[in-house]
Write a structure and sequence with these properties.
Shape: globular
Distance between the termini: 17 Å
CATH class: Alpha Beta
Strand order of the largest sheet: 1-2-3-4-5-6-7-8
Number of helices: 11
Radius of gyration: 17 Å
Structural class: alpha/beta
CATH topology: TIM Barrel
Order of helices and strands: EHEHEHEHEHEHHEHHEHH
């Protein structure tokens, strides 16, 4: 089976949803990821919720190109969790026939975080969406083992998932063995990029790299060969590469094409 590639929000952050869909089609991707809910109040996002004209344009672009929406961003689980806070996101996800919602765990109370994650999964089920918990070293779910632990505590819901981002693997206490230990049914997609690996970065440095300064696969020191060899060979890959300084003067389409070329080359060359 040929590998499927998705154009992640961060790679196409300069685009509207409809533009991202059309660029994905032009440059060889199969799917897109959209950030329709910001990762913090007032943070950048793509605007589609409550905008019927933009939604019609996006649906038309999907119909014209055959590109589908794979994942939506982002839900952050904290102590103020309300499962209906994101109803508009879930509803538009069903309209777009999206598959997954990216989830971050911010609540340091492990019992409460597990309970809230379970409730989120239950809420998402009628919309046909999985809740893909992304471990990030500066959050309450810092590595792959922690993500699996939270999902097990939540009762291993049918639509649970773990999102593996290469950047966070390279900057957390996560090993290829930890990745292999994730049950296959919990893996729906993985994100690829590169950076300098290590555990000595500050929270501010890690967040800056994640949001502003990722590298093309093969340009950093993350063990991407080891990571993607540990993941299922048919797992869809979300190409998530943002680099504000390098994107200057490059069109979103050219940037998306470069990111896909580097990602595909590395994965196809795996032993």
């Amino acid at each position: 089976m040929s590998r499927l590639y998705s154009l992640a929000y961060l790679t196409s952050h300069r685009c509207t949803p409809a533009e991202a869909v059309r660029i994905a089609a032009e440059t060889g991707y199969h799917m897109v990821g959209l950030r329709l809910w910001p990762n913090a109040p007032g943070a950048p996002q793509q605007h589609l919720l409550g905008q019927p004209a933009a939604l019609r344009e996006t649906v038309a672009a999907m119909r014209d190109t055959g590109i589908r929406v794979f994942d939506l961003e982002i839900i952050r689980l904290d102590e103020t969790f309300d499962p209906h806070r994101w109803d508009a996101l879930f509803e538009i996800g069903a309209t777009l026939q999206a598959k997954a919602v990216l989830v971050a765990g911010d609540d340091r109370d492990e019992t409460r975080l597990s309970d809230h994650y379970a409730r989120l999964c239950e809420t998402l089920q009628p919309f046909g969406l999985t809740a893909d918990l992304e471990f990030m070293p500066w959050t309450a779910v810092p590595n792959a083992r922690a993500a699996l632990h939270i999902i097990n505590r939540a009762g291993n819901p049918a639509n649970a998932g773990i999102l593996v981002d290469a950047l966070h693997v390279g900057r957390s206490a996560t090993t290829p063995e930890d990745i292999r230990a994730i049950p296959r049914h919990l893996l729906h997609y993985a994100q690829i990029c590169d950076a300098q690996a290590g555990l000595a970065f500050t929270t501010e440095q890690m967040i800056h790299t994640a949001r502003c300064e990722r590298l093309m696969p093969g340009e950093g020191t993350i063990d991407l060969d080891g990571l993607f060899s540990a993941l299922p060979a048919d797992l869809p890959v979300s190409v998530e590469i943002v680099n504000f300084s390098r994107e200057t003067g490059i069109s979103p389409a050219d940037w998306a094409a470069q990111c896909l070329a580097h990602s595909r080359s590395l994965i196809q060359n795996l032993a």
